[in-house]
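Posting this for the archive.
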Amino acid sequence: MMTEPNEVVLETDRLILRRLTLEDLDSLAILYRDPDVRKYFPEGTLTLQETQEELEWIIDVYYGQYGFGLWATIHKETGEFIGRCGLLPWTIDGRKEVEVAYMLAKPYWGQGLATEVAGAILSYAFEQLGYSRLICLVDPENLASRRVAEKIGMTLEREGDIHGYQTALYSIVRNG
């Protein structure tokens, strides 16, 4: 299922998810250079150039090869770009996996938005894309993200080294 740039991929009560475009670079760069937002990412904050490279990768590789990826997360009430959430393809221990990923700007933490968007992404991946298993990869110390994974029905499968980093792997299998 291909979507066009700026086309809405999915909506929740408070959020709109649409494909990222190069016009989102400045907003994404603000998010990626916030040390609190990037605290649990091994590479830390990103420069504008690094953000642009990731954005181009999302558009060219994720959208181009998989038809999904990370999406601009827009707050309905304000129309503001507040994060990037979506689905990420991985190969872990030789197994193809799809991760439910969420990252929101700090002013939007603690409002249930990550759980709202992660639950909607999970439903989309199961119902629209037909996946039978989804994962979340979380830094073991990131308690807020661990709680989000648990709230959307995932359970801790294991903790350990994944692609060179200590990671908590949560998973959920679709019933039926």
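The mean pLDDT is 94. The first strand starts at residue 8 and ends at 11.
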